[in-house]
Specification:
mainly alpha, globular, 40% helix, two-stranded parallel ribbon, 111 residues
Length: 111
């Protein structure tokens, strides 16, 4: 299941809107993709604060991961990748397995 929070969705939208991606997509294509993604994803409203990542903006992805009880984080972000496997869990979290942090290419090759 794909998880999104309001904060992570807005972060993704702002990144995709950068001019460096203009040659790969139109604004209409980007908006269609974001609409599709929003419809596909399970929305989660994290209620915890995590400060494990050196880049404070990336902590929202960890908060989503923990609040949504995710098993996998797919990202190319170097700060988040450095945390793999991510094992920090709040006291009330029932899971105990570490979470893998993979790039898109690693995910495609993952069993």
């Amino acid at each position: 299941m794909l998880l999104l929070s309001r904060v992570t969705f807005l972060e993704l939208a702002s990144r995709l809107a950068r001019s460096k991606f203009d040659r790969y997509r139109t604004t209409g294509q980007m908006n269609s993709y974001l609409d599709w993604l929003a419809d596909l994803a399970e929305r989660v409203k994290p209620s915890i604060r995590i400060t494990d990542c050196p880049d404070p903006d990336d902590n929202s992805f960890l908060e989503l991961l923990v609040a949504g009880e995710g098993d996998l984080l797919i990202t190319g972000d170097k700060d988040l990748r450095a945390l793999s496997p991510y094992e920090s869990r709040p006291i009330n979290y029932t899971g105990c397995l570490p979470v893998k942090v993979l790039t898109v290419n690693e995910f495609h090759a993952w069993p």
